[in-house]
Design a protein that fits this description.
The chain has about 260 residues and is α/β, with parallel strands linked by helices. The protein has a single domain, classed as Ribonuclease Z/Hydroxyacylglutathione hydrolase-like (Metallo-beta-lactamase, Chain A, 4-Layer Sandwich), CATH 3.60.15.10. It has 8 helices and 14 strands. The strands form 3 sheets. The chain has a 6-stranded mixed beta sheet. The chain has a 6-stranded mixed beta sheet with strand order 9-10-11-12-13-14, with helices on one face. It has a two-stranded antiparallel ribbon with strand order 2-3. A hairpin with a 2-residue loop joins strand 11 and strand 12. It is globular, with a radius of gyration of 17 Å. Bound molecules: zinc ion (ZN). The site of zinc ion has 6 residues, from helix 5.
């Protein structure tokens, strides 16, 4: 089994919204905002190759948006998913499964190229049933995080809805968490003795390892807090590693770094 961390591209979100109740005088030391109050974030999918499976976790943010949207979210050109697959020498056809942690545009938009062609054409797309229903009828709070054409296009894709935890393969398993949005999927990857946890937006950056540092985007903030605590405990106990999807600098966090 091989594990490939990918860096699809960078984008920007409001620094205040990313840090919830934390005062700017504290968070601006960790994420320096630009002159529009935005901080630079990464979109980092992960690819796991096994002999007959190619499991992609999330697709990044993508670039198939109008110029106003690209400006608001500071979406950078970057390699995109295709560029990253090319870099590691893997054809899109090798992707048999995509685990979409959730359907917010910064996690799913990168599955399409700039002409809105679906990149992992032959893959099965795995989503929690509760999240699919939520994405089709979102709360007013997170409706802006779902992009209509993406959800519409997924209606006709090879979608497989799950109800609760499931195993993708011996090495990859899924745990649903409801804090950030209903039915978000955290992913556990076991590579021999090495356990990698991909918490998605439950812990988006290193700054969010600090328990009360949570995003204003979270639908259930107290659930995020207890899920974060459980994930950190698990990584410490199993001497595993975390891979943080939006961390702009070093995305790998070793168990020894966790308090
Ligand atoms: Zn996100």
């Amino acid at each position: 089994m091989r594990v490939y961390p990918l860096l699809e591209r960078y984008f920007r979100l409001d620094g205040g919204a990313m840090h919830g109740v934390v005062p700017r005088v504290l968070w601006e030391k960790k994420h320096v905002p630009d002159n529009r109050g935005r901080i630079r974030l990464a979109a980092r999918p992960m690819l796991i190759l096994e002999h007959d499976r190619g499991i992609l976790i999330d697709g990044g943010i993508g670039i198939a948006y109008d110029s106003k949207f690209i400006d608001i979210f500071g979406i950078e050109e970057g390699p995109g998913l295709l560029g990253e697959l090319q870099r590691i020498g893997v054809s899109p056809d090798r992707i048999t499964d995509v685990v979409v942690t959730h359907l917010h545009f910064d996690h799913v938009g990168g599955l399409w190229d700039r002409d809105r062609n679906f990149i992992p054409e032959r893959a099965v797309i795995h989503v929690q049933k509760s999240h699919w229903e939520w994405a089709c009828h979102p709360s007013a709070k997170d409706s802006a995080s779902f992009v209509k054409w993406q959800i519409e296009k997924l209606h006709t894709s090879n979608l497989l809805l799950h109800d609760g935890p499931y195993d993708m393969s011996g090495a990859v398993s899924i745990i649903p968490l409801d804090g950030h949005t209903r039915g978000l999927q955290a992913v556990i990857v076991k590579d021999g003795n090495d356990e990698i946890v991909y918490p998605s937006d439950t812990i988006p950056t290193r700054a969010h390892l600090n328990l009360p540092w949570a995003m204003a985007y979270d639908n259930e903030p107290l659930t995020v807090l207890s899920d974060k605590e459980a994930i950190i405990k698990r990584v410490r106990e199993n001497a595993g590693r975390l891979f943080l999807e939006h961390e702009p600098h070093e995305p790998w966090v070793e168990a020894s770094e966790l308090k």
